[in-house]
Amino acid sequence: MTDLDDVYRAEYGRCVATLTRLLGDIGLAEEAVQDAFAVAVQKWDELPPNPGAWIVTTARNRAIDRLRRESTREARHAQALLLHQPDEEADVGPVRDDQLRMIFTCCHPALSPLARTALTLRLLGGLEVPEIARAYLVPEATISQRIVRAKKKIRDAGIPYRVPSSAELPDRLASVLTVLYLVFNEGYTSTSGSLVRTDLCVEAVRLTRVLADLMPDEPEVIGLLGLLLLTEARRPARVGPSGELVVLAEQDRSLWNRELIAEGHELVRRCLRRGQPGPYQLQAAINAVHTDGAATDWTQVLALYDQLLRFSPSPIVALNRAVAVAEVHGPALALAAIEDLELPGYHLLPATRADLLSRLGRSAEAVVAYDDAIALATNDTERAFLEGRRARLA
Fold it and tell me: What is the tens place of the pLDDT at every residue in 3-29?
């Protein structure tokens, strides 16, 4: 059922967050929500008026049934708490407190950095293991193991399900920002299916706003919010009338959300006044240049990427910088800049190489690079875009 798939993607994270508050156990909450969706498959002939509330109520009842079958004192205590909880009809929706608690719980310093973000992406965004593995460019088995171990550690160590105190916030901040950034990225270019998952984009922006309200003096929080707003502003122009991918240079700028752009620019100016640059602030500044005026000032973008590469010397930043190099200094220098980059499984590296080779008139090599990119692309829309570019050369 397509509608049920949509509900799962939109409501899974919210429902797990709500059940975790009620149960105090992330693993049990996730199992209960999964059970509730299995019941929905059998019972829903059409969507109920409030699908999320139905899932939470059913999951709560399934959890009570399970706890009744358990004989431990902890199970009896949890069952008593659940039985005295009111129905969750009013809580399902933008349950910002529950989801913020979920993020901070999963980003506890006791967990490894990869485990923190993988677990949060799974529980908050409802992302599947292949989607998370793609975001990190690591094997799926690695992500599965990290998630299982992280849930066990949260349970065994008694890590509390709450937003930490002001003194504890800085220790969690980097992981929380990474999670929100990756949730948005998965929404902006989803691993599979259609190009965009609007629900994840909207949720990442909303939760980043909540975090900015919680930590208004943290420049990187403001920088991330600015980055997401300026990127989200371009989303309406990113997909053409037939669902095709439209690259930045070909987008109809009249479709961009000017209100979000104005807000994003103001946040970038706030960051500049602080004089404490960081990776998210620099990425926000790059997007501010892209959305300022009728055309991109690529010289300014390249200068910002030079700064960003000093803060975050990663292959992906180097690849993005090469795109700016091509616009300022030509495709030959850009091609040389990415020649030694290694990003196994990342389709945008051969796709960028193919574009640069094509611009240099090296069509046969470009076709081979497009074939490599097409083989790695998991999103249908991106794959169709690459196939179209390859067909023009062939």
Answer: 787 788 778 888 888 888 888 778 888
DSSP states of 373-386: HHHH--SHHHHHHH
Cβ(195)–Cβ(381) below 8 Å: yes
Q: Could you say which DSSP state residue 193 is in?
A: S
- Among the listed residues 255, 206, 229, the one whose alpha carbon sits nearest the alpha carbon of residue 97: 206
Contacts of 308 (CB under 8 A, 6+ apart): 279, 282, 283, 286, 317, 321
Within a domain: 239: yes
State the Cα–Cα distance between residues 15 and 271, nearest whole angstrom. 35
Please give the DSSP secondary-structure letter assigned to residue 44. -
User: Residue 162 is which amino acid?
Assistant: R
Last residue of a domain, one of 239, 261, 294: 294
Dump pLDDT digits (tens) for 330-387.
999 999 999 999 999 899 999 999 999 999 999 999 999 999 999 999 889 999 999 9
Residue 142 tokens, joined: 């690695």
CA-to-CA distance for 350 and 383, rounded, in angstroms? 13
**What pTM, to 2 d.p., does this model score?**
0.78
- Find the CATH number of the domain harbouring 358: 1.25.40.10
Gap between the Cα atoms of 272 and 102, Å rounded? 31
